[in-house]
Amino acid sequence: MAAAHEHLADSADETPIPFRQAVESLRAARLRPEIEIDPTPAPKRLAPFAYALEAAVVERGSGADGEDTDLADGRLVLLHNPAGHEAWAGTFRVVTLARAELEPEMGTDPLLPEVSWSWLTGALDARSVRYGEPSGTVTRAGSHYFGGLASREPATQIEIRASWTPAEGPGGVPDLAAHLAAWCDLLCQVAGLPPVPLEAAPRGGVVPLPQRRGPQPR
């Protein structure tokens, strides 16, 4: 994350201290080793200040030729408006995307949207994350292949888009490390990874929520 840190330092004179501290909190998060995470360009029109990360849950050497396989991926964006935002009910907002491929039979479960949303709220609650004004969507899509692709098995994708307002702590700075860790717990959940016991996981553990039936290489 060195490049992102340098960019932040260059604009330090105009960047609010709470936002800079919130970004440093994101960088301090300790995550499961299956998570690969990097900074990515942030949207410029959603708030005066923004910082974005992209992440993937990676299964090492699981591909047909021994290459790594991405089981789930997503994006987390931190927004900050020092003047506050009426819809946020605060000065910070976390905006996330998580997506993965599921087994087709799980994709037909009528309770999948509700269960998927509970994975997110459960992950936040398990980390004792304080937040408000949550909103989002759960989308599932099925793919069937024809012609030259007819040999492929049908695929079902799930996409969870969510945003929430992190509660501000001392100095008006939320604990973004905990929010990032909870979101990565969600990524691991939709990827089908087994939960890590609370005492063995960094920063409190991975949420022991119902799992889908095993990861499918993408």
Short description:
The chain is an alpha+beta fold.
Structure commentary:
With 218 residues, the chain is an alpha+beta fold. Helices cover 25% and strands 33% of the residues. The protein is built from 5 helices and 6 strands. The protein has a 6-stranded antiparallel β-sheet with strand order 1-2-3-4-6-5. A hairpin with a 4-residue loop joins strand 3 and strand 4 (90-102). The two termini are 26 Å apart.
Name the shape in a single word. elongated
Helical segment tally? 5
- Write the H/E string, N to C: HHEEEEHHEEH
- The separation of the N and C termini measures 26 Å
Radius of gyration: 18 Å
Helix content: 25-40%
Q: How much is the average pLDDT?
A: 80
| Low-confidence parts | 1-12, 198-218
- What is the beta-strand fraction? 25-35%
- Give the total of domains: 1
Strand order of the largest sheet: 1-2-3-4-6-5
Structural class, by secondary structure, is alpha+beta
Report the count of strand segments. 6
What does the largest sheet look like? 6 strands, antiparallel
List the helices and strands and how they pair.
Layout: H1 2-10, H2 17-27, E1 35-40, E2 49-59, E3 69-85, E4 90-102, H3 104-107, H4 112-126, E5 131-143, E6 155-166, H5 176-191
Antiparallel strand pairs: 1-2, 2-3, 3-4, 4-6, 5-6
Helix pairs in contact: 2-5, 4-5
